[in-house]
Amino acid sequence: MEDIKQQRLRYNLPVLVCLALVVLLLFLPTGYEDAVIYKGADRCAARVLAVNNERVVDTGLIRSGEQTCTVELLGGRFRGRTTEGFNLLNGSLEQDKIFQVGDRAQVVVSYEGDRILSTNMIDHYRLDKEAVLAVCFAAFLVLFAGRTGVRAILSFVLTVLILWKVLVPLYLNGWNPIWTGLFITLLLTVLIIALVYGFDRRCAAATSGAAIGLLVTALLGVVCTGQFQIHGAVMAYSESLLYSGYQDLNLTKIFMASIFIGSSGAVMDLAVDICSAVNEVVQKKPGIGWREATRSGLNVGRAAMGTMTTTLLLAYSGGYIALLMVFMAQGTPIYNILNYKYVAAEIIDTVVGSFGLVSVAPFTALTSGFLLTRGRGAQPKPEEIQQSLPS
Question: Which UniProt keywords apply (predicted)?
Fold first, then answer.
């Protein structure tokens, strides 16, 4: 009976720890809440009542000039007021937007006292649709996976908060990107895997294997970035940081850190897959030796690596379909394509991340085979502990 209580505690303790961290992070200030660009301004949604396109100049596919809109403010301190909003067009299909009557827009209202000075049309308002999408996803996940789905949602929220409230501010404050990124990624690895297994031997086995894979990825990322002579400015929007008063940031080290941060999810996934497979073998055959259990984990790892490396390739290349089309449309030789800096950066992301996956498989198989066949033997499955809990 005492053993079952300890198992319940080990399985549920990560949930309590993660909930406490989520609450703490929700109230933790980033230090950048009062960015000067938004001082003296009110942000809210607005409904477009009328549009004036007389100052919009069409040149082929490009639109420039200024669109003016009559809008009704739907929130903020001027809720219910009708005012004129300005939508500046820069001739960029990527950034520009055109509003129609009935659209909902996100606006920034500059004011002085009770007087509206100007209203800038920032973009179409999408927060309500994003909220609906998030709620539907959470409901579907809980409906399909039950309590495990709730844990998955908790890990998702925790990851978002740690990245936004901890990692990004520390980077902006000049902390070493590689060591900071490694610490944050390893912390997330421990917490997320613990939400799957609880604080038990499976968690230790999977975390150990994933940590080794992340360290291999980090080391190779640092070496390859230097050898390929890649500057961190290859990251989208990174130069904007330098022009915003953060010229002391080391963009190259931030790029190095982004390599193992980007592959950490796949590393954790593979580590949990192998550890779960070894645990299943040990459950079915309690007297199995650690060598045989390790071989089983290696066999699973070999099969999983065949698709995992392709997963990374598709994940990284999916956002560059338009670029690949440009290369082909212009007849760019493959020799030139592979030598471009931004293409080489994606090659580093994919290949180095795959190295981490290849390394995590044998090490997770080894740690799982050794830890899960020692001492108390096989560990109870999460569903078995759930069934033992009072309804």
Answer: Membrane, Transmembrane, Transmembrane helix
